[in-house]
DNA-binding CsgD family transcriptional regulator
Amino acid sequence: MSAEELKKLASLSKREREVLWLVCEGHSYEEISQKLYISIPTVKANMGRVYVKLGLDQLQKAERIRVIHQVYWPLLKNAELPSEAPQAETPIPVPEPVAQMVDDDEHSIIPYRPEPIDVIEIRTPERVSPRPSLWRFVIILVLGLGVIAVAYFAFFMNRDQSQLGQELTAAVAQLTQVALAQTNPPTLAAAPTQVVVQPTAEPSIQPAAMVITATPPPPTAIPATSAPTFTPAPSIPLPFSDSFDNEPSSQWQVFSGNWITMDKEYTTAEYHNGWALAALDDPTWKNYRIQVDVNVPHMYAASQGQLGIMVRISSGQPKYLGFTVDGLSRGSWSYVTVDETSPDPIAGFGKFEVPPQFLLEIEVRGNQFVAKVNGQEIQSLSISGYDSGGIALGVTCITNQGCPSFDNLKIEPLP
């Protein structure tokens, strides 16, 4: 526990602590205003003063979100703080840049909150017993009519008395059994049965140690049952570049997803069926370097999707080889299957701290594959079985707000 951080947290007013507590619990500014009976601008003003007093306004967005959740939220819950720090008579004003940070960070700070699962109660319907008096009347009436009918036919058809007696006896016995069965019908008690559906525990993600190099065995051959079929594009000369300022180059092939150009960046709209892939498919490419600007709008938010760059792709591959980055700022060389949202890391994760916009660089030379972020090497891999082929940009996102995007792509050949 840092004494400096504890001192900063103790400097907050009671209202500022209440707002920070509710924000860390995952409430929106509108929900906080309803709980505390204050206006939304007042909520934002208190959060802005929290940013200034805790020094959060001096941090990049990704680091700011991490510090709120991993440093100040545990202190706020567990540390013994004074009831309220002495405050100036006039609250400190919130600078305009800080107010803008507060607005931009609202949905990034809110963690994932699973929907509550209701208890379902199933009741077995009651069977209502018929009224005995009505059934007795009906049985007596049927019994009398049956006896009259048998006597009538026996008289007119000249049957002997013995036969008539036997028929009467049989009819009376049968009707008596029916009467007994119907007079006391079975009664089913109403016994409610309760089926309780317990929600599964939310998985916890532990930070993985950084792995710089890895040399796994060659991938096991898997039948290509889910890989998409496509026609290879004609040869694409290197170097290649695309700024995406207008429409993407006509040499891009969309394998999956709904790829669009938005704000002069290449991305996909909301997509629920696995990885959205757009490719430059040239089976003759071998050694090359890729540089592309990446925008991850809500790093560390539950709604944030993943991104990846697949290299040396070909139409017969059941799984693509690519470097992927998830919403927790973790990168890994992975096997990627189109219809599965979770990549399969080959050599663990490389952890890095970057702002939402960063430069991703991939070098492919022989059996060596190297990934860099803002010039820093994150993870390198030595693997065989991926000898030549083009590239694909990949994105997974279940909401339009969480879709990463790409800009200023450059590919140059390497010797």
